[in-house]
Specification:
The structure holds two protein chains of two kinds. Chain A is built from 26 helices and twelve strands. Chain A is an alpha/beta fold. By secondary structure, chain B is of the alpha+beta class. Chain B has helices spanning 2-10, 46-57, 92-95; strands at residues 22-23, 32-38, 65-71, 79-83, 86-90, 98-102. Strand 12 (441-442) of chain A pairs antiparallel with strand 5 (86-90) of chain B, so a sheet runs across the interface.
Chain lengths: 629, 103
Amino acid sequence: MSATQAALEPDDGRRIALLGNPNCGKTALFNLLTGSRQKVANYAGVTVERKEGIATSPAGTRYRVLDLPGAYSLNADSADEAVTRDVIFGQLAGEQVPEVLVCVTDATNLRLNLRLVLEVRRLGIPMLLALNMSDLAKRRGIEIDTARLSQLLGVPVVATVGVHRGGADPLLAALDAMPRTIPGPPARWHAPTLEEITETHRQVREILLQSVREPAIDTRWDERIDAVVMHPIAGLAILAAVLFLMFQAVFAWAEAPMGWIESAVGWLGQVVSGAMAEGLLRSLIVDGIIAGVGGVLVFLPQIVILFAFILALEDSGYLPRAAFLLDRFMGKVGLSGRSFIPLLSSFACAIPGIMATRVISNWRDRLSTILIAPLMTCSARLPVYALLIGAFIPQREVAAFFNLQGLVLFALYLAGIVGAVVVAFVLKRTVGRGMHHPLMMELPTWRLPNLRNLALGLLERVKIFLRRVGGIILALMIILWALSTFPAPPAGATGAAIDYSFAGMLGHAIQPLFAPIGFGWEICIALIPGMAAREVAVGALGTVYSLQGGDDEVASQLGTLIGAQWSLATALSLLAWYVFAPQCLATLAVVKRETQSWRYPLIMAGYLFAMAYLASFLTYQIAVALGAG
Amino acid sequence: MWAEASDIVASVDSVDVSAGVVSLATLRKGQSGRVLEVRLPKVNHGHDRNLVLRLLEIGFVPGEVVRVVALGPGGGEPIAVRVGGTMFALRRHEAEHILVHPL
């Protein structure tokens, strides 16, 4: 059976694809059409998000709706646009040519949007024009003669409202009315010349002249807001305030739900422990799966809050403006203004940060951002920092205002940022050498974020995160558990069980390598289960030193114990290690997913280990030379 | 007007920057201009050609009125330009390809 026939199976639904400029409200329309019946994945072999969903018309016809990545032109300029072009031309492996292309346009900005429509119309594929945000257009006094527009374009035209219930019904009715055809190959296409583009714009003007009556565009409100928000000084002050609020929310609001998750995981562990006989299976479930997955799952509240902010800021039009304000600063180290939010997110956790790099359309910019994201001090480092600072740095006032412990913590954050700047700069000078990345970023009209879109967007991010926790992260946790459990200690063993395991052997084996940076075998062993998530190292050290009790008890006993056993130089060296080292397999797993290759997680792990080793080496040797050994 | 405009684009490399014609990058905040042409650089890198195509596609076509709405902090880059009903952020490098008559 050929692919074309498969597409016409009655059960399968008709395949339609939504095509349109970025910011035309296409995603809102897609959400309205498909509701929660969506599937989000990646296109085969590329890192572009593929969104498909099922829509049912009031007459009962099923449609499989593909939300193509936003594009200004078929003459692709980004990975997103290349996917859109290839799907339309049937040149993307695993994708069928859509039966009907729905060209979604922003009815308030047809001048820009219709150019793509005309370009696509030349291909001779069955298509339909949706005038989206038609409510907004009406409110602005824009009168569109849809019948005339349809006549001029030679395609059906419908008005839609992506943010109102029922706003897509005219579109579905028009689709029902379209005769069913087997999609043939589109007409030959060549990249337009300068003259052809200018000519298309002329045609757009001509068509608009005959079918649309629009008052002079009223940009007063937008300009008033922009005069403040994009002001070089006031704008940066507002940005700082927004970021402060966001950070405050991520840490303060997430605290309670994170506590609930921790207690729930702890409770579940106890229940399972109580219900099962002591043995390997219990250890696997309780210590491996429940504790390991729980350690990553605990970041879910932070991820939800962070993405709620990011999505609302993006939807309102603020995010591109923040990128505008920061582009110059970020550009100096070879990043774009758009790198800012993902990097900021990485202070909570690098995983959502790396997921958020999808807003960066330029692949090189995106890659640089992904590579430096783990250098932002994530919240999982805090338990490790807190343990070491508490045990080794005296509570002392510095210069009457500052607290020495606070200053050390600040220095650790700063070290990560400085490291990131250096790496970004090196990447710019090597990989991105001689490249000029155009910005050409649309600053869309201000809009109130739509709650349904926000909720659906959030749900999607949560699903992606949970799928990863349940997939590769779960697998890694089981491997780490096995390493720390097998082989079992011999009868009559006196040391901690982990000491006899593969992790223990590995810890002892790598210890000579870590001796120049001051790590004893206890630390080396703890680093191995600590690959699960950074804060796990605290618990693992507790295990190595055979401490008993709950998390808080272990941490406080451990503080006293290492304060007595380790040298200050070792503690400082371990702090330096945690600023840089890729002690988080989940992050590497996400990088693999997002870049669709093993190459970048390996590069990332390699350079981070090298930096961590160098930083720890310098810290340890200098500290020893100064008498802190 | 339109016939003239497309003639000018067609003869892109032969146009002189004469008096009264400046690049969009030199406009001050709040200043408007009418697009005369989007110019390919003398040495034609493939990359810049795509840049010019894209600038045209997003609406910087001869005859359009553009207005500089905002300048980025510290050195005036990027610039926010309104063209048609849309605002775009451009870096200076992009804006230099667009020649305008200041209004």
